[in-house]
Amino acid sequence: MNRTIETFDLTKKFGDLVAVDKLNIGVEQGEVFALLGPNGAGKTTTISMLCTILKTTSGTAKVNGYDIVKQATQVRKSIGIVFQDPSIDDRLTGRENLYMHANLYGVPTSEQKPRIESVLKLVELEDRADDILRTYSSGMRRRLEIARGLIHYPKILFLDEPTIGLDPQTREHIWTYIQELKKTHDITIVLTTHYMEEADKLSDRVAIIDYGKIVALDTPAKLKETLEGDVITIKTENPQKLASALTKMLAISKTRITDDSVEITVREGKKLLPKIVDLATEYGVDIESVSNREPTLEDVFIHYTGRAIRTEGSSELRGMSQIRRRAIK
Amino acid sequence: MTEIRAVYTLWLREVKRYLRDRIRIVSSFVQPLLWLLIFGSGIGGALSALSNFLPPGVKYQQYIFPGIVGQTLLFTSMFMGISVIWDREFGFLKEIMVAPVSRISIFLGKMLGDCTDALIQGVIVLILGLLLGIRFDAFAFLEILPIMVLMTFGLVSVGLIIASFMENLESYGVIQSFVNLPLFFLSGALFPVRGPNVPNWLQTASNFNPLTYGVDALRTVILGSKAQPLYPLYYEVLVVVAFDIAMIVIGTLAFNRRK
Fold first, then answer.
1. CB of A283 within 8 A of CB of A245?
2. CB–CB of A91 and B164 under 8 A?
3. Residue A87 contacts B where some CB pair is shorter than 8 Å
4. Is A153 on the interface with B (CB under 8 A)?
5. What is the ipTM of this complex?
6. Contact B251, B157 (CB under 8 A)
7. Which residues of A touch B166 (CB under 8 A)?
8. What is the DSSP secondary structure assignment for residue B37, as one 8-state letter?
9. pLDDT tens digits for range B54-113
């Protein structure tokens, strides 16, 4: 397959912090590639380097065949990007923002109008195009930014957390646009997200990134297969006791214990449920509930990193966003 | 051609933003008006008996008028330049920086846009002066404008340079105290910076102030035959141009630092 993006030991350090650690990934022509990881994992840092707005510490990458260190302008011409944070001028109208973009990217004057009308149509903003951005909702702004990223017909579109902070309805909406894009345009899409569902639904391949390193990379289906089975969650007041019984009697080696539950991953979980209930009765452990489900990418993430994706808002995260803001000056 | 279009696009953005900000345009009248009307009349009246520092036949209000034009250019340029921090805070700068446009064009587009805004403010003050009864040659206007343009180039660039080292706009007050006011007071806008009674340190300091040359050039042109210039006009213009070139070069470099 033809590789549109290839990184070679791509590394970025902020002082002592290694944000991206010798990254080697290849993105194939025409695919939707997701970088999945918690906030601060190095997703935005990676994308910023690929977009040439952040210097690499070492290593390099090729984007559309151009070196991100030596051929920055060529790289910039090949890509479109929707940043994580808004990057539109809120004192101009939607249409003015789009014309500005077209001019910055050297889109021929005669083609500007038809292209702008068509992207406005794609994101259903025709009737609001002449309003000042300030009056837009955050979902509309996001849609306008996606539209903007397409005006110059980029070979690769980067979407950095495209649906962060949006309500579920708008999120669904934007997912539809992204899927539509893939069908109608010959375009490679690289997106970062910390939403499992988003990565699962949109991408052909997912790279799970944590502490600046890729811990797993495959199609969502295959990643889930590596878990070898379903996830059974047993709610009980005595998870320790139940876990040791499971290990002893059913030869289940890996149990994940929380305050009030035991979680195990097994093949054909449904068939095991009655056995678990019997076992609990035998050991005198009260069970509140038992559930069996197919694995999600969340489970894959936990499997590879040993913990759940960090929730937003911790001090560590704020630290990272600070670094990011400084980095993109 | 693409580069020229990019410069034009960025210029247009700045001007559009400025012209849409009605409150700022209206408020731009107020400060110069206070200086000219109250300060100019008040000090002028108080000093009338001993105002031997003024060129013969020139009122104090007339004397400080070019200074107030210079002050407007200084304050506006500096503010406009520093306002690039807003673009950074609100993320728009990223959109520009990731565009396939040379960094020089980005700097020039931004700078020329801000200069145009500062220039509009300057012209507003000129009109204000006319309304207050300060007369100058219609022909002088053709000289005033280019001098004003040259002044804004360097000053906006200084603003952009400072902005590239500043994290946020909270420290704007520091700029006011350490850049704007010293440059203003040491420029000869309000009083002569040459003469037997002017302390040596002040004379020396004003020599290193680019605004001194701009203000004096404006004064030379506005007061016409009554003016008592510090240096020949061409020399002052040359100093301003040299300052512009230096600041544009440093500005382009500072603006493009990539981490």
1. yes
2. no
3. yes
4. no
5. 0.87
6. yes
7. none
8. I
9. 888 888 999 999 999 999 999 999 999 888 888 888 889 999 999 999 889 999 999 999
